[in-house]
Please model this.
Amino acid sequence: MSYLILDELTKIYDARSGERAVSDLSFEASKGEFVALLGPSGCGKSTTLRMIAGLEDLSSGRILLDGTEIHTVPPDRRHIGLAFETYSLYPPLTVFENIAYNLRAKRVPTKEINHRVTEIARILGIDEILYAKPGKLSGGQKQRVNLARAIVRNPALLLLDEPLSHLDTVERRQLRRELKRIHHETRLTTVLVTHDQSEAMALADRIVVLHDGKLQQNGPVIDVYRFPANLFVAAFIGEPSMNFVDGWQSGTRVDLGDSMALTTNVAHKGDVTIGIRPDDLAFISPGRSAGSDRALRGIVKSIEYLGDETHVVVETVGTTSPSVIRIGGEPQWPLEIGETVVIEVRRFHVFERDTGIRIDTVEDNPSRVSDMAIADKRKGKMREGSDE
Model:
């Protein structure tokens, strides 16, 4: 049985309008799993977290922790650790006393308090500032203390509400790595609320995507990224965002205009939207040909060199919006703004335009696999010759 279960959780703030902040939300988390609730502002993720913590009443549904219903249990008896985005530290108290505050309130023996505080401080890397006051700490240090207060209670479940949002870029990346390490060391079942898809993908074992209070997709990080359930998930996850091109599908052929077409695996008839991630597009080098079912022509509109990768914006012929292509490092040959290029589509998704539901995902071009197989055979022959 799963450790945390949300069963058709619903929250209605205005009974007259019946508008739902969260609507029939169900998902499960295994013991020791790190789950991210991901979605834009107002999607219901923080409301869901507050219902789990007992800070919001449920309109309907159930919450079970380790097989026991907790939605009727007072917050202080749910055995949950909670860290908000705001630190809320007590300025007159030292870091040690801030961490120990809840333990002292529960009359935990002093010897045990000393042991637990020093141990969690070691895990979070704040053991050298235990006797400093909060006013002397950086944002990253304050958030570590905030996390320590939640974890030191040895909770059955750890809830994190946008814990990195107040930090600058460097501190955010550093603490993100620390959170991953801390979770590996403590193995606390953790639910993180965030609007940052990079943060969710970096930290979580599994992502639960919400929009307008409704579940959009629930699955392992790699599955949500590679096989988005619908257009919302496809657009929300990934940086740069997925490219979209409207088309018409008849059978397995998708016409994109200007004599361009793609071939799919699943037959369908009607308006569709093709989704292509920037790293699933590649430039075809001058002099090299590509199959007509995977080639798009376009004009280079801008080039952004970002050090470890390059983003190239191309206005493809016959489409209404430009496409972004992501290249690792720099292009293998010079590209110029205004240049006409040919792009190979290595992988794409087909979405039904009316419902937004994904119909199909078409993997890498089989011809590229054949080319790789031929190259491997040649390498094999070369190795055999060298052995002789």
Remarks:
- Residues 366-388 have pLDDT under 50 and may be disordered.
- The chain has two domains: 4-232, 240-372.
- The chain is about 30% helix and 35% strand.
- Residues 198 and 287 are 37 Å apart (CA to CA).
